[in-house]
Design brief:
- The chain has 260 residues and is an alpha+beta fold.
- It contains five helices and ten strands, in the order ααββαβββββαβαββ.
- The longest helix has 25 residues.
- The N and C termini lie far apart (129 Å).
Length: 260
């Protein structure tokens, strides 16, 4: 009996190599690194999918314009509507919770119906002071003083046009900047780099009595005044510390036409 078992075992051992070679079956070695990499790839894919899904669902209520509002108009509650947007916070939208704060504000620019309201598009005071005249004043880019912005208190050094061709003493006019180009810094920088002589239009508010003088001026220079400083008078000296920019060098003894 033992001989029979030994004989069968020998036949199976001899047939093993032949079966493996003829059947084409191979035993692949295990590769744990590949398995780990595949698992990490699945985990990363799930994490990305969850992040995208969560951002899609992260919506907030903001204010939009329900009808077209012209620049200078006061906003009413009927002008506003609430919309839901998906935002990452980089857009300067106005939260719907601030609706009561926006009502009564004044539009700084034309607000088109259906557009989202942004924080810089409204202001608390009227676009034009009822006691002032809004005018556009051309100023050389090289003469724009540093620090000039909306709301800046200015002194306009007006050189009146002369009918006889002779020299005319300049006149000082107090003004307030109503608006400046959004790219004013870029314009001034480009002018300084190229040396090109060009002008920029500044929107300023002036007393009604000086509107004709400003509008017919041969040339205008501007200086920024400290809000608390007294307005320069006829006795102002050259290089007064109250002035900023090229205007300080443009003020010989002059007539003051300031108005409040």
């Amino acid at each position: 009996m033992a001989d029979v078992r030994d004989s069968a075992r020998q036949r199976m051992t001899a047939a093993g190599p032949e079966l493996g070679a003829g059947s084409g079956l191979r035993m692949r070695p295990q590769r744990p690194v590949r398995a780990v990499f595949g698992g990490l790839l699945v985990v990363a894919s799930v994490a990305i999918a969850l992040t995208v899904y969560s951002r899609i669902g992260d919506r907030q209520e903001v204010l939009a314009v329900g009808r077209t509002v012209l620049a200078g108009e006061q906003l009413t509650d009927a002008d506003l509507q609430e919309v839901s947007i998906s935002s990452d916070g980089s857009f300067a939208s106005v939260p719907a919770a601030s609706r009561s704060l926006i009502v009564g504000q004044y539009a700084k620019v034309r607000l088109v119906s259906g557009s989202l309201l942004v924080t810089d598009s409204v202001q608390s005071r009227p676009l034009v002071d009822p006691d002032r005249v809004l005018m556009s004043v051309p100023v050389p880019l090289t003469g724009v003083p540093a620090g000039l912005r909306e709301g800046s208190r200015l002194v306009l050094i007006i050189t009146p046009a002369s009918e006889t061709g002779g020299s005319v003493s300049p006149t000082l006019v107090e003004a307030t900047v109503a608006a400046v180009p959004s790219n004013l810094g870029e314009l001034v920088g480009a002018s300084s780099a190229t040396g090109a002589s060009s002008t920029v239009a500044l929107s300023v508010e002036v007393p009604p009595a000086t509107a004709a003088l400003v509008g017919s001026a041969k040339a205008v220079a501007v200086g920024v005044l400290d809000p608390q400083a007294p307005f320069p008078s006829r006795s102002s000296t050259l290089g007064s510390p109250q002035l900023s920019g090229d205007a300080a060098a443009s003020v010989p003894p002059a007539t003051s036409a300031a108005g409040g």
